[in-house]
Predict the structure.
Amino acid sequence: MKNFFAVIYILASLLFTIDTKAQHQEISEKPGVWKEKSDEKIDSTSILNAFKKGDFSGHFRYFFMATNNESGLSDYYANAVGGGVKFETAKFHDFQFGVSGYYIFNIGSSDFTQKDPVTNASNRYEVALFDIQNPSNKDNLSRLEELYLKYNYKNSTITFGKQLLNTSFINLQDGRMRPTEVNGIWVDFNQIKKTKINLGYLYGISPRSTLKYFEVGESIGIYPTGVNPDGTKSGYAGNLDSNGIYIVGIQNESIKNLKTLLWNQYAENIFNSALFQMDYRYDLNPNSKLLFGFQTVYQYALNFGGNKDPSKTYFEKNGNSQTFGGRLGWQNKKIELTLNYNRITAKGRYLMPREWGRDPFYTFMPRERNEGFGDVNAVMTKIQYTNPKKTFKSNLAVGYFDLPDVKNVALNKYGLPSYVQTNADIRYQFQGMLKGFDAQLLYVHKFNVGETYGNKNYIFNKTNMSNINFILNFNF
């Protein structure tokens, strides 16, 4: 906490110094040179000037969340507020330095240390607004988020250090107070027309709802771990060994209206995942389009999947999985309507650490995932409206997720029964005097349609429940 406020103080002092000096300066006749009234000259290409010309930004968020479970089971609520600042220098010989920090306050929530008396299970959703590793922590909720050095070459960049990333498998999953962040080297190469290439080596991850960075193997298992394929409790948390994650991504749009995407993610000593996706827009007329999409993911274990002991490994030795999905839709300037399908075959469980990001599937719906399952059929339809000024957006989605029986532990890692989910999402960006504010209201309801054998552990925080969220953001 002291380190966080020290960063804030330094940044504030720096801004004050910049403003004070600017009032005593005037522009020299020579471009790129500041001229003090004392005739002292400061080169615009100096490190000092890079800091003076840097960008200062901030983000504040209020988040209310509440879960209403089936009658007889525990309900929860949470109120969180937080704020953070970021500073990035101007370019100095094409280099930039960036740093950011954030602080979260619990301003009135349920007691997350109390388990549900019927199932003896813990809170699932609301605790993730704070510190899931310490549910009783309400005071020391600060973290250093970004700390990087970036090199710019034309339209391309190389970034080294703590940073934010959005890939198909590792992404911000920004549905709580703070997103997931990574530590490593990331190349964003944009020198080929209509083609984007990404290369990365990641050696640290700070999952959302945690306060520090972890090594790659250590980051897997911070969230609930479910069961092994033989039904025993998964024991991979704290027992996985990996030197890091190697990522290659290629996005091409050289064919009109067609976007092709390829990602390969190699988690050393644990598993490899490859995704191929094509999205095509067919012009019906100047105002509307047909949407087509295809996607497939293939995974396989590396070595012993993280640990030689089968009870402590993440990806079963010689294990593999495959998914494929499609999308059909229609879009005009205001409305987008899609029908989405995803199939995870019965070859094995689709596995991707929930600490790293959300599912890449067309059928993904906030507040639930299909990670950890095999032999899945998912269908989801969604209609979205955006007003002409793009200040208001709303969508309604309904999905049916046919999962393996909860007792089929080989293909059902978390004991989740089949379910129907509905999401209603409304977002608004304020203008005028309140410009910079945006608000979101998200309502989720999940209906159980699978066999639960009278066991409430298959219901609590999983199905026959609703979850409501109100988020207010201010960005500057």
The longest strand covers residues 271-285. The first helix runs from residue 2 to 22. The chain is about 5% helix and 45% strand. The helical segments are 2-22, 47-52, 216-219.
